[in-house]
Amino acid sequence: MNFEMRIANMLADNMNGFITFVRENHENENNCFCLNRDKLYQLKLLVEEFKFQVLADELKRINRFTWDENYTHLLVERFRRGMRIIEEYVENNYSDLFIFTARLYTLNNLSLLLCKEEESDTALSE
Predict the structure, then answer these.
(1) Rounded to whole angstroms, how far apart are CA atoms 93 and 83?
(2) pLDDT tens digits, one per residue of 27-78
(3) Do the beta carbons of residue 48 and residue 82 sit within 8 Å?
(4) Angstrom distances, CA of residue 111 to CA of 15, 43, 49, 107
(5) H-type helices in the chain, by residue range?
């Protein structure tokens, strides 16, 4: 199995884990981690708005048997656009959403591994 294909599958699995984590924390009424339920609901809406579930399922589907580099990079770039906004939202509301920072850190690093070539090319041009 190709190294990039494994990373793409790990990213898809971690995206599904993040989506489930957000959903379960929102549905749990006795949640002691998030003091402001409205901010948690907003995070849930952001995850749904950027269609993370669709992206994760599609990323898993296309990298199940073969490595499709172009389509994988397209999906990862769409995911990263949504991640930037979600990371900023969690950072601005850190006192209520601190529990999500570890998962966001993992997702960010996995996605950077897949678009490392593109990032290094843009860094060199600047």
Answers:
(1) 15
(2) 887 766 666 888 999 999 999 999 999 999 999 999 988 888 899 999 999 9
(3) no
(4) 10, 20, 19, 6
(5) 3-27, 37-49, 52-62, 69-92, 94-97, 101-114, 116-125
